[in-house]
């Protein structure tokens, strides 16, 4: 029996293939160790949050976009860069920061940064430029930070409510709008987040970007198509709200619930898709895009070359990257163990007597409100001073703001219940909560019909009294990193504005300020410093 000879090129190709497989296996294992929980949480959001159910489509679509560019990749000679290892390190650091700061958005964005770093480290800048589009497309699968999502969703709810009210009134159906609530003779409709337009806006935006990327190479046409999704989604959901109200007006409350309501949502989204394609049709009619069979883009001069049948593996870079991923997993485990909540008194023990003010317990929130609120403990009371002027007090406390939990600003919540802000600013309190200290809090005047109220509120954590919602979030990030604490509270005082006084608004400010001064010495027992 004679030994079977193997030609040198064939042996080299086999060694290259084995090296590639080992490199891929090593990196996939490292990514799985580091990002398994991140991906699991992301998929959980896709399942449970209807605003992001389109997330299941994004990874396959991004993979298809990358596959479409395989010819461009094949024309590139690999030029690995050690700078990619630094980008991977930056992605791992971003993940650790997100874990310490309890910010899901950062942990999920870090996955895309890490993938970009791996491409740069093993293939080079030219390959990263080719794959930049598919990698950027992955951002659409990540839910927005709650603080930003609320800033978008609540105004969209108001727009949908107002548009729905106008159309219902035009149909000669009596309707009264209070914020996001439409009151009809037969039922009451609440324009929730699902009806705000944010869900269809995100889905339409995803569809427009994917369609524009595949159908038209002109950047301006893609931008116009993406921007057009905003008015389309707003109008479509306003029509949906109006249609639901008109159906409820003629057919009763059942028309606003269950299968009919969901079917109306699907039908309106289908109409929105048709409008999106109509916009592209108008663009194509106005300025035709030209044939899609254009010659392939040439590779950059510095990247041209004869690519081998198998990409050359970079074992040392792969080992370094895998080591960074494993170290990152250890860092994440340490970060998760740092969530500390200090002891405090519960609000059930909050005194009914606050200085000269006597309190009266108000009804508890309904389960649906509590689910949206997400607070671990809360207090809602009315207090009356010696002159019988009253104030409303609400305090919500969050023991941890990890797991994507956030404090809802009154600027978002009050309009939802029908109170429209007519002025806002800041109130400066001297010698509070201690002598020699000046504290700034938020001051808003809201109205509903003929009623007006002064709303004073602030965020409080670890002894700080903070007016800005964004500054409160930044302090929370710093505290989570430094001490492992992410607890905090929202304190809100509401004072009715009585029009029978010489300066009603100033009188309300003085009443609210007096109550807040009496409140200052009590809060630290219930909101830990």
Give a brief outline of the structure.
The chain has 3 domains: 13-144 and 312-336, no CATH class; 146-286, no CATH class; 347-525, Protein Transport Mog1p, Chain A (3-Layer(aba) Sandwich).
Main attributes?
529 residues; three-stranded antiparallel beta sheet; 12 strands; flat
Describe the SSE topology:
Elements: H1 8-48, H2 58-68, H3 70-74, H4 83-100, H5 104-122, H6 125-137, H7 146-170, E1 175-178, E2 181-184, E3 188-190, H8 198-215, H9 219-227, H10 229-251, H11 258-286, H12 315-336, E4 353-354, E5 357-361, H13 367-373, E6 377-384, E7 390-398, H14 410-416, E8 420-430, E9 438-448, E10 451-461, E11 464-466, H15 469-483, E12 488-496, H16 504-519
Q: What features would you describe in this structure?
A:
This protein is an alpha+beta fold and 529 residues long. It folds into three domains: 13-144 and 312-336, no CATH class; 146-286, no CATH class; 347-525, Protein Transport Mog1p, Chain A (3-Layer(aba) Sandwich), CATH 3.40.1000. The protein is 53% helix and 15% strand. Strands 4, 5, 6, 7, 8, 9, 10, 11 and 12 form a nine-stranded antiparallel β-sheet that branches. Strands 1-2-3 form a three-stranded antiparallel β-sheet, with helices on one face. Helix 1 packs parallel to helix 12. The N and C termini lie far apart (85 Å).
């Amino acid at each position: 029996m004679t030994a079977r000879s193997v030609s040198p090129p064939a042996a080299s190709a086999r060694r290259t293939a084995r090296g590639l497989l080992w490199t891929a296996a090593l990196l996939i294992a490292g990514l799985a160790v580091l990002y398994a929980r991140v991906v699991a949480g992301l998929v959980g959001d896709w399942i449970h949050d209807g605003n992001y159910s389109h997330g299941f489509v994004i990874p396959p679509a991004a993979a298809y976009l990358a596959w479409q560019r395989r010819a461009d990749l094949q024309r590139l000679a690999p030029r690995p860069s050690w700078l990619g290892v630094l980008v991977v390190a930056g992605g791992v650091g971003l993940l650790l920061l997100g874990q310490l700061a309890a910010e899901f958005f950062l942990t999920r964005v870090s996955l895309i940064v890490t993938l970009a770093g791996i491409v740069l480290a093993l293939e080079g800048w030219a390959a990263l430029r080719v794959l930049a589009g598919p990698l950027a497309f992955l951002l659409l699968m990540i839910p927005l930070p709650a603080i930003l999502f609320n800033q978008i969703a609540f105004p969209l709810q108001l727009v949908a409510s107002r548009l729905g009210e106008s159309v219902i009134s035009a149909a000669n159906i009596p309707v009264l709008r209070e914020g996001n609530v439409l009151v009809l003779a037969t039922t009451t409709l609440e324009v929730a987040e699902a009806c705000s337009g944010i869900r269809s806006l995100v889905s339409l935006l995803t569809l427009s970007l994917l369609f524009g990327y595949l159908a038209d190479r002109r950047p301006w046409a893609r931008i116009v198509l993406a921007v057009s999704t905003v008015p389309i989604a707003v109008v479509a959901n306003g029509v949906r709200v109006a249609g639901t109200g008109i159906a409820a007006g003629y057919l009763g409350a059942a028309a606003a619930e269950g299968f009919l309501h969901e079917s109306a949502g699907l039908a309106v989204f289908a109409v929105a898709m048709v409008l999106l394609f109509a916009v592209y049709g108008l663009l194509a009619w106005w300025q035709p895009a030209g044939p899609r069979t254009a010659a392939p883009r040439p590779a950059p001069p510095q990247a041209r070359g004869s690519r081998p049948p198998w990409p050359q593996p970079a074992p040392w870079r792969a080992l370094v990257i895998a080591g960074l991923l494993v170290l990152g997993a250890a860092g994440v485990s340490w970060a998760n163990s740092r969530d500390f909540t200090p002891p405090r008194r519960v609000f059930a023990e909050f005194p009914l007597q606050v200085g000269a003010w006597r309190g009266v317990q108000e009804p508890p929130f309904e389960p649906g409100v509590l689910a949206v609120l997400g607070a671990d403990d809360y207090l809602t009371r009315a207090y009356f001073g010696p002159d019988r002027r009253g104030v409303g007090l609400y305090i919500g406390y969050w023991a941890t703001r990890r797991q994507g939990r956030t404090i809802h600003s009154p600027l978002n919540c009050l309009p939802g219940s029908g109170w429209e802000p007519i002025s806002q600013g800041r109130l400066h309190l001297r010698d509070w909560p201690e002598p020699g200290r000046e504290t700034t809090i938020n001051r808003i005047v809201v109205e509903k019909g003929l009623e007006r109220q002064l709303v004073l509120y602030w965020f409080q954590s670890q002894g700080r009294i903070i007016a800005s919602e964004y500054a409160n979030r930044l302090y929370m990030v710093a505290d989570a990193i430094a001490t492992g604490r992410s607890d905090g509270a929202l304190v809100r005082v509401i004072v009715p504005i009585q029009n029978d006084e010489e300066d009603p608004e100033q009188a309300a400010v003085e009443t609210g300020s007096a109550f807040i001064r009496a409140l200052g010495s009590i809060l630290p027992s219930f909101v830990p410093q």
